[in-house]
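User: I've been trying to design a sequence by hand for this structure and keep getting stuck. Would you show me what you'd pick, starting by listing the structure so we're on the same page?

Assistant: Good idea, let's start from the same input. This is the structure you sent:
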């Protein structure tokens, strides 16, 4: 089974501890104000794009094992966290990055912002889920993928009795104004969805598809979760989001109201991964955290939310996912290319579609 997983993947590719705090990222910051705290050996600054409830759940064990350490978690959408890290390049505040997209970490790597580190247990991580350098600069923890949350009651109120099952279905004019999606400039889910479509259709046809989809989109949101949450709340009929959030939202409101759909053409996807930020003074607790973040117990936690983790497909695939989750992923996703093309893709997307983006808070 493990060999099959490796072959299949090879074909593709602030919560607080003690007095720590949850903060929202300010992408324009330079980190100057936080320098003193960043240098404190008993303070660990973690930047993450993991979901809020996941951070709280996962961190429980680390908190128990390290009672004298204050962990400050800055949690935001992938694009915002990535922009904040890039803005702080010359004066980094973060000690570690936890659960950020591999594509974003490759962008940081291009700017020489990551320090190589082989965390304890890295030999158990599949080759496709880690940097291929002898001492990896990033190590993956799980994969996440595009999915739709469909509010059947909203669609019925518009005289629509069918549930879209594919990307092509979303282009039907009957869905005009009923679809919400993540903005790829601020959301990793939005970016993996756009990259997936460009990979699936090719650049020319992919942008043509996105032009047509844009006609049906009501608004682009600045979070990967928000489209699913908005659909679940009955604000829109279809939220283009990601598997975990769609499944959770459908369970919360009931399958008679909402349905999580994985597009039949395949899902765009990326890996959530960890890395050590390059700094003049790196802390031992940073490395200890990265050891813990791929430990067996935490990997089991990841597997309760995602069917594909960095050690392979879990024994107990979470309810709502395909029993063959690797087959759902669009093959041959090139994350190195996605990282190199990130700026140009976002520039093109913004020029074409940003007029429908939600107003950013703050």
């Amino acid at each position: 089974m493990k060999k099959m997983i490796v072959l299949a993947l090879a074909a593709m590719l602030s919560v607080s501890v003690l007095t720590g705090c949850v903060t929202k990222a300010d992408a324009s910051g330079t980190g100057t104000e936080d320098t003193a705290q960043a240098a404190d050996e008993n303070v660990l600054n973690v930047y993450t794009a993991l979901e809020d409830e996941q951070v709280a759940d996962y961190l429980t064990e680390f908190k128990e094992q390290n009672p004298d350490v204050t962990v400050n978690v800055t949690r935001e959408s992938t694009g915002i966290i990535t922009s904040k890290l890039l803005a702080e390049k010359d004066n980094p505040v973060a000690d570690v990055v936890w659960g950020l997209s591999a594509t974003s970490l490759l962008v940081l790597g291009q700017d020489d912002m990551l320090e190589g580190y082989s965390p304890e247990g890295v030999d158990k991580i599949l080759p496709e889920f880690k940097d291929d350098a002898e001492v990896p600069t990033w190590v993956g923890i799980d994969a996440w993928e595009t999915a739709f949350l469909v509010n059947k009651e909203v669609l019925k109120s518009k005289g629509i009795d069918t549930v879209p099952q594919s990307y092509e279905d979303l282009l039907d004019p009957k869905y005009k104004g009923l679809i919400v999606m993540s903005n790829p400039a601020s959301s990793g889910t939005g970016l993996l969805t756009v990259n997936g479509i460009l990979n699936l259709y090719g650049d020319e046809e992919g942008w043509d598809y996105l032009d047509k989809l844009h006609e049906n989109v009501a608004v682009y949101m600045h979070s990967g979760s928000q489209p699913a949450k908005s659909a679940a709340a009955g604000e829109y009929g279809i939220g283009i989001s990601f598997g975990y959030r769609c499944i959770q939202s459908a369970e919360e409101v009931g399958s008679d109201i909402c349905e999580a759909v994985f597009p039949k053409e395949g899902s765009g996807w990326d890996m959530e991964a960890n890395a050590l930020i390059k700094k003049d003074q790196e802390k031992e607790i940073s490395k200890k955290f990265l050891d813990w973040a791929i430990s067996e117990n935490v990997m089991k936690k990841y597997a309760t939310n995602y069917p594909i983790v960095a050690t392979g497909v879990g024994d107990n695939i979470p309810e709502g996912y395909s029993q063959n989750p690797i087959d759902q992923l669009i093959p041959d996703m090139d994350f190195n290319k996605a990282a190199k093309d990130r700026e140009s893709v976002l520039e093109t997307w913004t020029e074409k579609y940003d007029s429908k983006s939600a107003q950013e808070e703050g």
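That's my pick for every position. To get oriented when you compare it with your attempt: The first helix runs from residue 2 to 10. The first strand starts at residue 16 and ends at 17.
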